[in-house]
Amino acid sequence: MLVSSARDMDVVGQAGTGREAVELARTARADLVVMDIRMPDLDGIEATRRIAADEDLAGVRVLVLTTYDTDEHIVEALRAGASGFLVKDTRPAELLDAIRTVAAGGPGESRDSPAATVRMASRSS
Description:
The chain is 47% helix and 13% strand. The chain is an alpha/beta fold. It has one domain (2-124): 3-Layer(aba) Sandwich (Rossmann fold), CATH 3.40.50. Strand 2, helix 4 and strand 3 (84-87) form a beta-alpha-beta unit. It is globular and about 30 Å long. The model is unreliable at 106-125 (pLDDT under 50).
């Protein structure tokens, strides 16, 4: 509902499983996929990996949105090819801003959860 309410965004599909998400990315040709980590059939990390590895989907970005705010999940998602990582308690305006930023970003640009970014930075120092 949130994304549909934004005048500059269109929801082109909704998947219930990771496999459906990959197939929908192929058929809908969206600019961006908002992916949950925990999905039936195929988790969001592997679905992200498959989208990122598919040459026909070059340019499709993945923004991981999940309740699992752990370093391991963040690293896995980004290594799989996600362009950003946000937790589900992100404020609605911040989520829409993150979608816009990731969809418009160049190679290597991402929009990460501030808390996750701070924790990852402090862990590597």
